[in-house]
């Protein structure tokens, strides 16, 4: 499974930070790949998969 998200999700705290920590603690994330901006049509921000 892959999820495409903006880079900001990797650094925000509060609820997103707790969710991210839980996913890491439960070994649910195998890797994170960062892509540059404008990779996807009509998307001007960098994303991660």
Task: Explain this structure.
- With 49 residues, the chain is α+β, with helices and mostly antiparallel strands.
- It has one helix at 14-25, and strands spanning 5-6, 34-35, 47-48.
- The protein has one domain.
- It is 24% helix and 12% strand.
- The longest helix has 12 residues, at 14-25.
- The N and C termini lie close together (10 Å).
- The mean pLDDT is 89.
Task: From the structure above, extract its key features.
49 residues; alpha+beta; 3-stranded antiparallel beta sheet; 3 strands; site-specific DNA-methyltransferase (adenine-specific) activity; methyltransferase; EC 2.1.1.72
Measure the end-to-end span. Answer: 10 Å
Along the chain, the helix and strand elements come as EHEE
Structural domain count: 1
Cα Rg = 12 Å
| Percentage of residues in DSSP E strands | 5-15%
The shape, in one word, is: globular
InterPro entries: DNA_Adenine_Mtase, DNA_methylase_A-5, SAM-dependent_MTases_sf
Enzyme class: transferase
Domain DNA methylase adenine-specific: 2-49
Keywords: Methyltransferase, Restriction system, S-adenosyl-L-methionine, Transferase
Produce a short descriptive summary.
By secondary structure, the chain is α+β, with helices and mostly antiparallel strands. It contains one helix and three strands; from the N terminus they run E-H-E-E.
